[in-house]
Amino acid sequence: MDLGIRGKRALVCASSRGLGRGCAEALAAAGVDLVMNARSAGALEETASTIRAAYGVAVTAVAADITSEAGRAEVLAAAGTVDILLTNAGGPPPGLWSDWDRGDFIRAIDANMLTPIALMTALLPGMIDNGWGRVVNITSQSVKAPIAQLGLSNAARTGLTGYVAGTARQVAPHGVTINNLLPGIHATDRADALDGAAANAQGITLDEARANRAATIPARRYGTAEEFGAMCAFLCSAHAGFIVGQNILLDGGAINATI
User: pTM for the complete prediction?
Assistant: First the structure.
């Protein structure tokens, strides 16, 4: 399918690996020029070079901490006006409610709520002026069904979801859509970290922890970055203009809910 976005320009955050990279590759395959961001310059430039060679699109790589004010300023200066924004940042660590203090919550909210809001605040006006834009936020399945040990993530990402619910309806008349993608477990470094924590807590091997988690998913496997990226690219496409303010699960059926 031609997604109708060839020649558009996208800012893709946290895109050197994992789900962010999957989204960057899917957009590049559709002919979208990229501004890619990640903290690690080496891994980011390696990924950017691979995408340039594979898809023939223009790729600007900006190594910076998108969750910091200085890092965002650097990325936004390099990005300029974009048609597509993908927000993404690593999730806070798991733990017990008694492990966290105010500082932990502030860091989680800064990274997983206020950073996406700041990026939207900066880039939505240009999209509105152009009469077209797409924003996709990578959040988590935990906003549909909170995960006990991910209380920091539950809180921050649910806050972002509430913000998007209202803002998406305000910008929709201008041809701009905002939607959230809610990943379940995918084969990424984040899954490795969570499985490692589970293995340590339960006194089992990492492979056993992965097998136990996969058994709880109706699809009986972890998702892939490629299939996640394909859904992201569709939401950014010319065909998705009537999808507004939605929270779309990609979890292999793990969340058991009618609605």
Answer: 0.93
